[in-house]
Amino acid sequence: MAAEPLSGADIVIKALVDQGVDVVFGYPGGAVLPIYDSLFKQNSLRHILVRHEQGAVHAAEGYARSTGRVGVVLVTSGPGATNAVTGLTDALMDSVPVVCLTGQVPTHLIGNDAFQEADTTGITRPCTKHNYLVKDVRELARMLHEAFYVAKSGRPGPVVVDLPKDVLFAPGPYTPPEEVRHKSYRPQLRPDPVRISQAVEMIARAKRPLFYGGGGLINSGPEACARFAELVRLTDAPCTLTLMGLGALPASDPHFLGMVGMHGTYEANLAMHGCDLMVAVGSRFDDRVTGRLNAFSPGSKKIHIDIDPSSINKNVRVDLPIIGDVGEALSAILAEGAASLHCADSAARSEWWRAIDKWRARDCLRYDRGRRDLIKPQYAIERLYEFTRDRDVYITTEVGQHQMWAAQFFKFDEPNRWMTSGGLGTMGYGLPAAMGVQIAHPEALVIDIAGEASVLMNIQEMSTIAQYRLPVKVFILNNQYMGMVRQWQELLHGGRYSESYTAALPDFVKLADAFGAVGRRVEDPAKLDDAIREMLDTHSAFILDVAVDPAENCFPMIPSGAAHNEMLLGPEDEAEKPVSEEGMVLV
Amino acid sequence: MVEIERHTIAVLVDNEPGVLARVIGLFSGRGYNIESLTVAEVDRANGLSRITIVTTGTPMIIEQIKAQLSRLVPVHKIRDLTDEGPFVEREMALIKIAGKGDARIESLRLADIFRARVVDSTTESFVFEMTGSSEKLNAFINLMEPLGLVEISRTGAVAISRGAASF
Predict the structure, then answer these.
(1) Rg of chain A on CA atoms, in Å
(2) Does the domain at residues B5-80 carry the CATH identifier 3.30.70.260?
(3) Prior bond to A556 cis, omega within 30?
(4) pLDDT of residue A1
């Protein structure tokens, strides 16, 4: 029985509904009007009207990362699409499943420099996992279903589907998702059993093992994270996580050494430097993690479990690559090693833990807790954590010092609770991402830990937050500087703070008011607790502008071009270990 | 110093718009070298094209190139012909010589030795067609240089493995 043909726009809506989509973040415009008309006539899909297309993509990312589902974006042609590019690149770098539908001028005008025309597939080719230009309505349903399949399978990522306006008006057949199978794209999920056995053997033999988990664990799902925690505990091995992996192992677990990398803990970085076996799980040896490559963990064998073969041996040569879904690989290791993994050399293991305890005793995250005159940013986050630790809380961040402090001082015991722009480092990510998280979890407490500079980059989304009455909390650590820029200028450029001071910041209390939210400012450490309490007790959107020490720097720090064992622990180290000339040119 | 290797890689891709841009963008975006790249449809029924890429890099880079290529969604298969045993590699060139007199005669004589074919001729020019390894083409072109060489068009290498095994 041939189904009645639908219009292209109706096919789009039907495909989204059949893919289980319940919310779309978007902004209308000429080329996508037919889709907005179809949206108007139905009740299954909710549309969230953002104020800028970049915000739509970050909101979809927040939605995706807090739920494990695909985030969906709908924007118009030309500027709608180009505005989405930063968000798409962010999603690509952090492997977030997003499907972004872009309008396009009618097929017969493509290439004519038509009004609001941009070569969207050309522009987004390097910043998406894949993209489609639908030139024929008969291809539309298949391409949409493929887009969802590609976005969420293997290493997830953003997929763009570019939709010319005439295709949206044209009548065409609908194909349900179950009848669509991609011709060739089949990421390998099952790990090679031979390598699993080798991994078990290597782990059992290791004297100083270290688990190094990343965002791949979060992407694989809570089940994979549970397997990971099980393996860490079974082997009684120390474990560190990347910025993207926080929450994959509960921060309260005694095996957790804190975050690794440039602003990771002393114990995590020294354990990485000194281990004899590194088990990398869903992590990618990013330059923020490895520091100077030729000095990276010189004495260790390395196992690398990842779903993306191109992550293997990209930066660091590993001894045993295991390609597959990390959850499946971890289950296989646990199944095979149930008997052998915990009978490791216990004397050697205790010696390893003694060394780690010594590093831990350095208390690398210490800061001046004695200040009564101004609020230390670390203190602000510690207090925020204390007040929210027993609540259903989701944290997003912007990018910079506040982001690193949040990563260091906020403790995550579950996956999908921490949304931050890791790979691309997109200032302006946190507020729209928080919006997306709140849409996905209406009852939860969602806090954007922000810097005053970053949050201004997408501050227009306060209007979206107002429209949908989202009780998002914005916790601004306001030091009046682009803090991380200032820190690098202090370290590398003789303290010449070129353009890193914001001379005309808005009054965030009034700004909150203007957007129908509640705003408060706090400057006195003694009043911080009350201010946080008020924020948490308020059932609407809230901006808490916390005036913090403008001179505080983020430590520990591995300066660029340095190795893990050359980290700076505090300001006293800065003078002693100047950054090398090779390090200066790195980012 | 890590040594730089030259590899010939065959890539079977969906013959769809943008696929070549994807491959080329990958090379330029990640800073890999392309010595030559050829592409044409090879399987109309299944809509498949074959791209032959000659590239250079350290062994780690070559491994990355293959991994990154296989990550592209429209890529079906990849073969590193250089790694996988003996293979045949050929290139074609069209070479135009302009001039009169002895140089013109000499170019024709050399073309004969190299088994180049004359595909166009006027009283003051020849166009030679020549197929062979890139080295052979280079040698012939070098010889033509003083004999009135005015224009060259080369296809870039195509390659296939020897023996019965197929892609």
Answers:
(1) 24
(2) yes
(3) yes
(4) 44
In this structure, what token pair is assigned to residue B90?
């050929």
Domains detected in chain A: 6-179 (3.40.50.970), 193-360 (3.40.50.1220), 377-547 (3.40.50.970)
* Catalytic status, residue A484: yes
Check if A404 is active-site.
no
Determine the 3-state secondary structure of A366 from DSSP.
coil
d(CA B69, nearest CA chain A) in Å: 9
ipTM of the complex: 0.90
Per-residue model confidence as pLDDT tens digits over A540-555: 999 999 999 999 999 9
- Is B64's CB within 8 Å of A313's CB? yes
B141, B159, B162: which is closest to B150 by C-alpha? B141
B159 Ramachandran zone, left/alpha/beta (phi>0; psi -120 to 50): beta
B interface test, pick of A310, A311, A318 with most B CB neighbours within 10 Å: A310
Measured between CA atoms, the residue of chain B closest to residue A154 is B71
- For residue A431, what are the contacts with CB-CB under 8 A and spacing of at least 6? A55, A396, A398, A448, A450, A455, A458, A459, A461, A462, A465, A472, A474
**Topology of domain B88-159, CATH:** Alpha-Beta Plaits (3.30.70)
Decide if B5-80 and B88-159 have a common fold: yes
Which one of A122, A310, A313 has the shortest CB-CB distance to B71?
A310
Q: Which residues of A touch B22 (CB under 8 A)?
A: 125
Q: Flag whether pLDDT at B89 surpasses 90.
A: yes
pLDDT digits (tens, 9 = 90+) for A417-440: 999 999 999 999 999 999 999 999
Phi-psi region of B81 (alpha: psi -120 to 50; beta: other; left: phi over 0): alpha
8 A C-beta contact, residue B52 and residue B156: yes
Active site residue A4: no
CB nearest B14 (choices: A121, A183, A314) = A183
Any idea where the domains of chain B sit in the sequence?
5-80, 88-159
When scoring A89, A110, A132, A184 by the number of chain B Cβ atoms within 10 A, the one with the most, hence best to mutate, is: A184
Q: Which helix (H) or strand (E) holds A544?
A: strand A542-547
Pair B50, B12: CB distance under 8 Å: yes
Q: What's residue A3's pLDDT?
A: 65
- Cβ contacts (< 8 Å) between B14 and chain A: which residues? 183-184
Nearest CA to A418 among A254, A217, A233, A148?
A217
Nearest to A208 by CA among A273, A285, A281, A264: A273
Cα–Cα distances in angstroms (integers) from residue A277 to residues A203, A237, A360, in the given order: 7, 10, 20
Query: A461 with A55: CB under 8 angstroms?
Result: yes
Residue B1 is predicted with a pLDDT of: 67
Question: Residue A560 has what pLDDT?
Answer: 83
Q: Please check the confidence at residue A191 and state whether its pLDDT lies above 90.
A: yes
